[in-house]
Design brief:
6 helices, 3 strands, elongated
């Protein structure tokens, strides 16, 4: 039995919507950990009983800013504009979705949406026509039907 290659395991063609949601969640978690790790560590130290300090956060002129002060020293400070924050949060997941959408097959998820058995599938096709009866909705056939009755 052949082992699947790693490129086949991570192929976007095989992804389902749940894989896309997991990729977005992993991105957001990595973004939080990478950008805020120093603040998280400083906040953890500040939460100990023996430490003295403060943490402040504020919004002004479209900029979100925060500062952690411990024993009179600024341990961490950071600021980001709302537009940059919105782009960081939305643009990479949107790009992942776009690449997934363009690379996936249109029928990739169609099997889950189809009828579960043949009876339902036959019901969807439509009823059989009565043999020998022809339907016509032209003006002449309607007029002929009136004249015959």
């Amino acid at each position: 039995m052949m082992k699947p290659r790693s490129s086949m395991i991570f192929s976007l063609r095989r992804w389902r919507p749940r894989h896309l949601l997991l990729a977005w969640s992993a991105y957001w978690l990595a973004l939080i950990l990478v950008t805020l790790w120093p603040a998280i560590a400083a906040g953890w130290r500040l939460s100990n009983e023996n430490s003295h300090g403060s943490a402040t956060a504020g919004v002004g002129d479209g900029i979100l800013s925060a500062r952690i002060i411990e024993s009179g020293q600024i341990v961490w400070t950071g600021s980001i504009s709302f537009s940059t924050l919105a782009l960081l949060l939305a643009l990479p997941p949107l790009a992942i979705w776009l690449v997934w959408f363009l690379s996936s097959s249109r029928t990739n998820n169609a099997g889950e949406m189809g009828p579960t058995n043949r009876t339902k599938q036959r019901e969807l096709v439509g009823s059989d026509r009565t043999p020998g009866v022809t339907e016509s909705f032209s003006q002449t056939s309607i007029r002929q039907g009136r004249e015959e009755s």
